[in-house]
Amino acid sequence: MPGSVAGMFKIHEDLCSLPMQRLLKPAIRAAKEGVKFSHLQAMIFKIVGSIYSATAEAKETYTCSANDGGLIEENDLLRQPALAETLDALGSEWQ
C-alpha cells in the first residue's frame, strides 16, 4: 500500500527507542535463511497456487528447486533474498 513504509517509519520515530536496523534484523535473517512452510501455509498455497505462479517473478519467489520447480510445499524453505536486501536498505536509510 502506498505510504505504508513511510508510515511505519513515522511510528518508529514517534514511539520506538530501538534502532530500525536492530528491529529489522530478525526479518532480514529469516528472508535470507528461509522460513519453513507449515502444513497450513502449504494448503493455502495449493488453493491459490495459480496466483503464485502467474508471473515469472512470482514463480521465481514461490517455487522450490527441491520440488522440481513446483510451488513451495510443507517443510520447504521460503527464501526471499531480494526482500532481505530491501529491508536492509530501508534499515540503513532510516536511521
Key phrases:
mainly alpha, 2 domains
Describe this structure in words.
The protein is elongated and about 45 Å long. The protein has helices spanning 4-15, 20-33, 39-47, 49-52, 56-62, 81-93, and strands at residues 35-36, 63-64, 70-71, 77-78. Helix 2 packs antiparallel against helix 6 (81-93). It folds into two domains: 1-34 and 81-95, no CATH class; 35-78, no CATH class. With 95 residues, the chain is mainly alpha-helical. Strand 2 (63-64) and strand 3 (70-71) form a beta hairpin. The model has no long low-confidence stretch (mean pLDDT 88). Helix content is 62%, strand content 8%.
Short description:
With 95 residues, the protein is mainly alpha-helical. Helix content is 62%, strand content 8%. The strands form two sheets. It has a two-stranded antiparallel sheet.
